[in-house]
Amino acid sequence: MENDFVKELGYFGFTMRLKRINDMLIQEGRKLYKELGVDIEPNWYVIFELLKVHQRLSITEIANRLLLAHPSVITITNKMIKAGYLESGTDKNDNRVRVLKLTEKARKKLPAYEKIWKSGEKGIARAFEDKDALGFLDLMEKTFGQNGFVKLTLDEYRKDQN
């Protein structure tokens, strides 16, 4: 792309480029679902799959298993509840804890959705067939998980102050 200011920023534009890729994939996912007549959002698949395996989970358990922020999980799951894919109840041992599970509608549609997701997975694999994209993502998560952006930035900032 010509005149890509964010790309010109090098590492300073790193997070913006990740955001652009994410936005592009979400937008493309929406186009795909619209074309196929599917009434779900691109980031719902992971909740479907997680609850397929674990049946009932609290918001906190979902957030912890996906390593997502609690508010992000609430936003996604509230939309899924509104669309009729999740039902909310309370934990048997603690009425304050909200527990989610797939609805009958979700269980019926899941096999068709999984075919779409499998095709999407194959499409992404084909796009990166000779590259280790997943390995690079693992490296990024490990690096930022161990060192953290704040620590890395403060280390560099303090070096520059001396």
TrEMBL record:
Residue stretches making up the HTH marR-type domain: 2-145
Identification of the protein by name:
MarR family transcriptional regulator
Mind listing the GO molecular function terms for this protein?
A: DNA-binding transcription factor activity
What PROSITE patterns does the record point to?
Answer: HTH_MARR_2
A Pfam family matched in the record:
MarR_2
Q: Which domain of life is it from?
A: Bacteria
